[in-house]
Amino acid sequence: MDKINIVLGVTGSVAAFKGAELASLLVKEGIAVHTIMTDAATKFITPLTFQSLTKQKVYTNMFEEIIYEDIRHISLAQRADVFVIAPASANIIGKIASGIADDMLSTVVMATKAPILICPAMNTAMYDNPIVQGNIAKLQALGYHFVEPKEALLACGDIGRGALQDPGIILGAIKSLLKGRDVEHAPTAEPQTEAPTPAPPIQHQYSLAEVENHLRNPEVARLFRLVDDTLASQLSDTDRKMYLHFYDELGLPVDVIHFMLKFCLERGKRGNSYLRTVAENWAEQGIDSIQEAEEYIGLFNNEYREILRNFGITARDPIPKEVGFMHRWLKEDVFAMPLIKLACEKTIMSTGKPNFPYADGILAKWKAENITTVEQAEALQQEYYDNVKKFKRPLEQVERAKPKPNKAQNYTGRTWDYDKLNRMERERIDRKVSE
Known about the structure:
This protein has 19 helices and eight strands. Helix content is 54%, strand content 9%. The strands form two sheets. A six-stranded parallel beta sheet has the order 3-2-1-4-5-6, sandwiched between helices. A two-stranded antiparallel ribbon has the order 7-8. It is flat and about 140 Å long. With 435 residues, the chain is an alpha/beta fold. It has helices at 16-28, 47-54, 76-79, 90-98, 104-111, 124-128, 130-141, 167-177, 208-214, 218-231, 237-248, 254-266, 272-284, 290-310, 320-332, 337-351, 356-368, 374-401, 418-434, and strands at 5-10, 32-37, 58-59, 82-88, 116-120, 145-146, 150-153, 159-163.
């Protein structure tokens, strides 16, 4: 068995030490780990740490002198079975999304054809920033894989989502990407105390023999015929494997897959990465009929986009996390659109930006109070303001009752003992008389 090669990118983050822990776990699995560190990463942890753990050269400088024995570092992009960036900063995510290659890490990312797994780690406000979320959505649509950060106490003191996911969970996502490749040792990661973040759906690497075997199924044969007719061309082996993945692993019915293909073509989206993203989203929503697909498209195009507009978002589609919030508000909690709109407006007024978790907190409070209309929500808010005023009024009255200090007197007056003064005066007079 050929040795599995992982390229590990490490960027500038206090979570860089977890990148070292991940490298250690991979080495214990018998995997060769080749580390690329950005200049900022070396400020948090030394290259020597990764070199000691992996017994491999660590790359930091794209322009370092190349000698014959070390020329392999220029082929890292081709040798990688999986390319992992952990931790991944907002900066590197933005570079990749924009096609910028100005250092060793971003250059190798641009050149590799291996699956790329990005594990973000940053401040909560940075992670929720619409630009960062837009970059993540763009990369997901292009076929990049992500392990979402977890919620924890961050280095900046904030509590929220942004901490690098546990190395054991990242290892599980890497193994999903390596599906079909044997790993020399059994998993060594300790069991997690919290529910792991599910790894992104990974397409099984079907062999041509497996594809031919599935063609004995009349439904699979019908699927390929429908797709061939719709595209007016014969599917390549790679395309057949992708559509077989939709049917065999995601569990989408043939008619739903065909309907999905026509829907994507109508939107001018012909790329396989976009098709995979839509298929995985529909499978996650449990769509198993054309009628359900039509209802979901209507919801996506109307209600979802209206909510985005209420947040001031008009230039992009919602990302999966946003879809999850909106689906729950509309389908599970069954909030009326005016009430959702009011929550969006209050979120913008309070935070100054689109913030789905903040709006979700507002709606959760209204749900607990059985609020179903805008009028009830506004009455609840007015009641809150009235209670605040009632509480503040007695305090204001107490403050007004206090004697105001004399601004011209800023010292403590002396207290005189007049009895003592009188006694001292009599003693002085007695001494004078006796003299």
